[in-house]
Amino acid sequence: MNIGYYPGCALHGSSADYETSVRACMKALDVQLDELDDWICCGATAAHSINHKLSVALPARNLGIAEKMKLKQVFAPCPMCSMELKKASDEIQASPERRKEMEEIVETPLSGAVDVWNLVQVFQEVGYDVIAEKATGKLDAFKPACYYGCLLTRPPKTLKFDDPEDPTSMEELLAKLGAEPVEWNSKTVCCGAGLTLCDEQGVAEQSYKILQDAIDHGANCVVVACPMCQVNLDMRQADAKKLGLTKDVPIFYLSDLVSMALGIKGKQLGFGKRFVSIPKEMKEA
Amino acid sequence: MAKIGVFTCWCGENIARNVDVEAVSEAISKLPGVACSMDYKYMCSEPGQSLIASKIKELGLTGVVVASCSPHMHLNTFRKTVELAGVNPYLVEMANIREQCSWVHTDKEVATAKAIELIGMAVAKVRRNAALEPIKVPVTKRAMVIGAGVAGIQAALDLAAGGVEVILVEREPSVGGKMAGLSETFPTLDCSQCILTPRMVEVGQHPNIELLTYSEVEKVDGYVGNFKVTVRKKARYVDIAKCTGCGSCWNKCPKKVPNAFDYGLGNRTAIYIPFPQAVPARPVIDADNCLRLQSMKKGKELCGICLKQCGTDAINFHDKDELVEYEVGAVIVATGYKLYQITKEQENPKLQGYGEYGYGKYKDVIDSLQFERIISASGPTGGEPKRPSDGMTPKTVVFIQCTGSRDNAKGITYCSKICCMYTAKHTMLFKHKVHDGEAHVFYMDIRSGGKMYDEFVRRAIEQDDAQYHRGRVSKIEEVMVDGVKKCRCYGADTLTGKPCVVDADMVVLANAMLPSSGVTSLAQKLSVGYDGYGFLSESHPKLRPVETNAAGVFVCGACQGPKDIPETVAQATAAAGKALIMLSQPYLTREPEIATVDERLCAACGACVKACPYNAISIEEICDRKGNLVKMTSRVNPGLCMGCGTCVAVCPSKSVDLIGFTDDQVYAQLESLLD
Questions:
Q1: Domains of chain A: total
Q2: If we measure between CA atoms, which residue out of B576, B649, B569, B653 comes closest to residue B610?
Q3: Fewest beta carbons within 10 Å, which of A32, A259, B424, B490?
Q4: Over the stretch B36-70, which tens digit does the pLDDT of each residue have?
Q5: Which chain B residue lies closest to A165 (C-alpha atoms)?
Q6: B359 and A166: CB-CB below 8 Å?
Q7: CB–CB of B355 and A164 under 8 A?
Q8: With contacts defined as CB-CB under 8 Å, which chain A residues touch B359?
Q9: Do domains B134-234+321-336+516-590 and B340-514 have the same CATH topology?
Q10: Predicted TM-score (pTM) of this structure
Q11: Alpha-helical runs (H) found in chain A
Q12: Which residues of chain A lie closer than 8 angstroms to B478, CB-CB?
């Protein structure tokens, strides 16, 4: 399978380890990633707060590139990117006037026929059973708290992906790979990353609540599918400790765990870039 | 020669504001066949009607057109007027120049021209009207009431008191419905059982009432005054004529299952009466859970303890469902409601459930009817407030109103009407039992319209110290606080503008009211309309609130829309009254505007039979005197036909026509419009 790949700013910057992990994982699953040629910012979060037209035009240009490259799907590992792309795609398809306007702005034809996938959806397309068959190791050292954050399932009208209030798609995948996902309360709570610059204390409290909830429900790690969630929950643990966090919680990308099940070692997944050190037994399956 | 009188109404300003009535009247007077054209401020008033009558007598009018409001509003009024003046009532036509003209246009010139055209069409039609006689049909003086909650009980007792035989059908093993499970009622706090149980006993004993519990309506044939209803009497496995209700069977039955009457909070046995005050106080065997009946499927005979215990030989494991047909003249539907379930799987795909409240996985998050059982003296805890998970007495209870209601995102737009009141009641009942308890209510608006209702809510707040927070709860989480399980409710108080988090021992949801399961298939059997949620449609929201568009079928109670007990009882009495009026006639008259088949032309293709929504058309044989088949034809049953005209539209040989709306009349109207 080859699919379009839109890394977005995070995967080429602060969350380069996410890209390392995603690429390693996709390679092992025989999914070829065709990176969009000359992609630009998706517009999140600044554009949609101040200029609606801009917030459609920026992702529309990226969708146009995908069409030029004759791609049927674009995979955006960052849920903010995939949401913005999907929202723009929906809007272009719903209104012929909007589509015409966007075609003029981005100077490329837009049929709206490009589907947008997030990380979990790529795994769903590959097939959980196919992944389980390819797995060489069991994730039995992992008791993950699967964390969807605010954006992976929302807004539900746009994403139509899993249950917005009680998602279970990550749990289902990891359970198939031998992990023991825990039942917990904070799956879809916001991690507060959006307030990083203006309310540091608030973000620390939010991270503490989520991490402690995971610990209280028996988790030994948290698994995310969002670069912002990862960096926030990982980086804030020193502050969260001051608020009473009882122990370190390693924060993994979903692709990390799938990769390890497929026999890839932590070293190849960018584990060296993580703030919270990862215990030895969690460095490979 | 036609002498048509046209009477144009101003309707105060309603019509005159946008239609130049005098100009209309003047223009119409010039139409061929119009003998007089008059206008008046209120044509439906006494002077207006007298004007019509005097012109009929003075000019010998052969037809009348009243140009005013919708015929739904006043056609009957004007039919009576002309009848009293000696003209056949079906020689009146109405031109609707209000709803379909003055109310929907702003340009007076355009509206005036349109009014002239509408009246011109009515004149063209009335010239071709025939004098008609209403159809007379006989009446069976017996009524069926479907559903024996408080609505059905009230309707049945009123009908029975009026001397009519009643067949009261209830699908549960006992009468009583939802009300039998309630604790105390607002706004008086009198006990639900004390009000209802005597009436339950009365329906069980009344000589005019035949009570069919554990029974469901299977099929409905016939028409107003002459329905044939087939009822499925479900296998009870207990002969209620022999049974004395002693209780030795259910006391010894070894199989325990959750009791639906307690909404799963308590248990019952496989042979059971749903609650001690049940009427009839005779048990049924739940075949799905009975060890003996289940083993019999595998060719074995296990258990059978009830059989051994029974001193009157009333148990019959070979009992079968029985179909019985009843002839009745009227049907009252009183099938009640159920609550919106917050679970993920929903019967209606439009409904979403509440993932944010855990889709029902938290044991201490219960619905309002479960709370009624918990605080009811007859409930599973004997009236002691205990929470389901561990039996602890809850100290802090959060009540969340509008769970489902008024929330389009969850699939329901309407207000369930009674939740504000019963939630206030719940806070009181809780505080009366747990004096140091805290009752928190999250609400959107308090809707307490009704006699002594708002005073009741104020009492909950002011005397019983219920804490009201104006806002919604966005999420419930189960957490441990100092070793005790709590339901953490993340709410907002929009009056203070602050988040409001309450750690509750128990959460009570005021779930939206929905019509009870299976109501739509019953409605289809009865040809009664229903809305997108399944609430049954009344004939007119103001003037015909208990009638339906299916003649002879009446509705009352929560199957028609959310309502409380007083309103339900009032509506039940109204429905019984309407049915009694109908059944007290020696015969029924029906509008003669029905379909008729020209049997010489009909090819018996059957297109009309398939198209008819009321099953009013059948294919019949026409034979000569010797009994030889001459031809086949379709034929309309005048008792069943509702005059909708669908058959006229589908007939390929144009051999069906609708009396009063014949092709000839309709084409004349069109010609008048296109001239």
A1: 2
A2: B649
A3: A32
A4: 999 999 999 999 999 999 999 999 999 999 999 99
A5: B355
A6: yes
A7: yes
A8: 165-166
A9: yes
A10: 0.83
A11: 8-11, 16-28, 46-50, 52-68, 79-94, 96-106, 119-126, 128-134, 156-159, 169-176, 200-216, 227-235, 237-242, 254-261
A12: 185
Cα B146–Cα B149–Cα B151 angle in degrees, nearest 5:
75
Same domain? For A108 and A185 the reply is no
C-alpha B557/C-alpha B380 separation (Å) is: 27
Paired tokens of B303: 């258990």
- The class (CATH top level) of B134-234+321-336+516-590 is alpha beta
Chain B residues whose CB is inside 8 A of the A164 CB are 355
CA distance B532 to B516: 14
Buried b (16+ CB within 10 A) or exposed e, B365-379: bbbbbbbbbbbbebb
The residue written with tokens 């000839």 in the block is B664
Nearest C-alpha of chain A: how many angstroms from B142?
Answer: 52
| Residue B264 structure tokens | 């799963």
A98 and A217 fall within a common domain: no
ipTM: 0.84
The residue in chain A having the minimum alpha-carbon distance to the alpha carbon of residue B357 is A165
Q: Which residue has the tokens 């929470």?
A: B387
Pairing assessment for the beta strands B595-597 and B656-658 based on DSSP bridges: antiparallel
Select from A92, A117, A142 the last residue of a domain: A117
Q: Which fold has domain B4-126?
A: Rossmann fold (3.40.50)
Residue B1 has pLDDT above 80, yes or no: no
| Helix H or strand E encompassing B67 | strand B63-68
What range defines the domain where residue A130 resides? 126-282
List, for residues B230-269, the tens digit of each pLDDT value: 999 999 999 999 999 999 999 999 999 999 999 999 999 9
Q: Which CATH number fits domain B595-659: 3.40.50.300, 3.50.50.60, 3.30.70.3270, 3.90.1860.10?
A: 3.30.70.3270
Residue A45: asked if its preceding bond is cis (omega within 30°), the reply is yes
The Cα B545–Cα B555 span in angstroms is: 8
Asked if residue B289 lies in contact with residue B255, where contact means CB atoms within 8 angstroms, the answer is: yes
If you search the block for the tokens 């504001």, which residue do you land on?
A: B17
A137 and A186 together in one domain: yes
Identify which of A165, A186, A216 has the shortest CB distance to residue B356: A165
List of residues 6+ apart from B480 with CB closer than 8 A: A216, B486
Boundaries of every domain in chain B: 4-126, 134-234+321-336+516-590, 236-320, 340-514, 595-659
Task: Determine which of B472, B475, B481, B482 to mutate to test the interface with A (most A C-beta atoms within 10 Å).
Answer: B475
The structure tokens listed for B169 are 């059908």
The CATH class given to the B340-514 domain equals alpha beta
Partner residue opposite B355 with nearest CB, options A165, A186, A216: A165
Q: Which residues of B touch A165 (CB under 8 A)?
A: 354-356, 359
Minimal CA separation from B399 to chain A, in Å:
21
| DSSP track, B305-348 | HHHHH-SS--B-TT---EEEEEEESEEEE---EEEPP-SSS-SS
Report the gap between the CA of B182 and the closest CA in chain A (Å). Answer: 32
Average pLDDT over residues A63-91: 95
